């Protein structure tokens, strides 16, 4: 989830950045690919009037029909669903081999599947699932995917802390406990769960899952005091959301494509971590939630935009929990890179 109250100086001290300067001790040999396409299956926004370009494909109202007796002919055109959640399909091509992975699954049990069906995407063809973290607005659609698959096995990469019980305890309101992901239930539905804290290479070493992200900036301090985790004996502040991880692909001659779910580790921390792990400095694209929405995170917008401007990604598609203030700031600072996110949009990066 992506909201909460402001924390204290003590809370900030608890998440002071760890030094992680220089090259990675154990660099990752991420093989370059010829093309990557990221299709946003679920996002907070659906805009049927957005226009595409040479790197972005959009969809309008012509993605399906629904019965509606109020219209002549008894049908009406429908668009795609938008909700406070995120899901993306990542399709990677290397030579003649193409592989697809599902990155997160949105909030509700059916939105991801409804959107995929309307887009003509058969999610039965995905080779695996990657979860950015365990928050329920990124995993709810797994129920719909499991029903469609009928129990057939599918690999799933998660951080071992994705099963953590969490709640929002905003002062003056009753605590709201979030739905907690169940490993037992997922395995019963056919998901072959692989837990990893460290970086993982998938798809013949062409896709990197970062594992835990080094927190090195001075301004990305994590979640405010209202975000709590169950320790087994009580609730305590959970600033880190340590299970937060990103997906990274290296497009030959272009640089890294970095896909985030919420970016709880901090957008700049995540990009720099990917650069350190791979030894690749150029960033071709940054796509996904950047977690800059709400009073606890708006003070971070300025230094985040400044750092991302210095990194100079060729394409920036902030979605989900980024927030309108950060969207405006990023669009102003990176006018040639910034692109609006919307459910159903596809973003393509080709090799140079």
UniProtKB/TrEMBL annotation:
CDD domains: DHPS-like_MBL-fold. It comes from the Bacteria. It holds the Pfam family Lactamase_B. Residues 97-172 form the Metallo-beta-lactamase domain. GO terms for molecular function: transferase activity. This is 7, 8-dihydropterin-6-yl-methyl-4-(Beta-D-ribofuranosyl)aminobenzene 5'-phosphate synthase. It comes from Oryzihumus leptocrescens.
């Amino acid at each position: 989830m992506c909201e909460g109250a402001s924390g204290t100086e003590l809370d900030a001290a608890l998440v002071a950045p760890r030094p992680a300067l220089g090259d990675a001790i154990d660099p990752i040999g991420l093989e370059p690919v010829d093309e990557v396409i990221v299709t946003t299956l679920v996002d907070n926004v659906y805009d049927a009037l957005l226009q595409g370009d040479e790197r972005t494909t959009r969809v309008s109202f012509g993605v399906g029909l629904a019965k509606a007796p109020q219209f002549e002919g008894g049908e009406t055109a429908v668009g795609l669903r938008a909700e406070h959640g995120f899901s993306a399909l990542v399709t990677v091509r290397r030579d003649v081999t193409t592989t697809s992975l599902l990155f997160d699954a949105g909030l509700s049990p059916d939105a991801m599947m409804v959107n995929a069906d309307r887009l003509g995407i058969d999610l039965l063809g995905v080779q695996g699932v990657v979860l950015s973290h365990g928050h329920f607005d990124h995993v709810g659609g797994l129920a719909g995917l499991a029903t469609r698959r009928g129990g057939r096995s599918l690999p799933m990469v998660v951080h071992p802390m994705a099963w953590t019980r969490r709640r929002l305890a905003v002062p003056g309101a009753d605590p709201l406990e979030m739905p907690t992901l169940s490993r037992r239930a997922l395995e019963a539905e056919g998901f072959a769960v692989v837990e990893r804290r460290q970086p993982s290479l998938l798809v013949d070493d062409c896709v990197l899952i970062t594992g835990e992200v080094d927190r090195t900036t001075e301004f990305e301090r994590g979640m405010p005091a209202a975000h709590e985790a169950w320790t087994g004996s009580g609730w305590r502040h959970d600033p880190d959301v340590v299970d937060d991880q990103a997906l990274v692909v290296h497009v030959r001659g272009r640089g890294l494509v970095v896909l985030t779910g919420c970016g709880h580790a901090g957008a700049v921390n995540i990009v720099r971590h990917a650069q350190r792990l791979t030894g690749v400095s150029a960033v071709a694209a940054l796509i996904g939630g950047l977690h800059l929405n709400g009073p606890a995170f708006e003070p971070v917008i300025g230094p985040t935009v400044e750092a991302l401007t210095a990194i100079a990604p060729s394409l920036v598609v902030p979605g989900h929990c980024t927030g309108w203030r950060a969207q405006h700031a990023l669009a102003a600072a990176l006018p040639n890179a910034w692109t609006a996110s919307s459910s159903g949009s596809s973003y393509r990066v080709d090799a140079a």
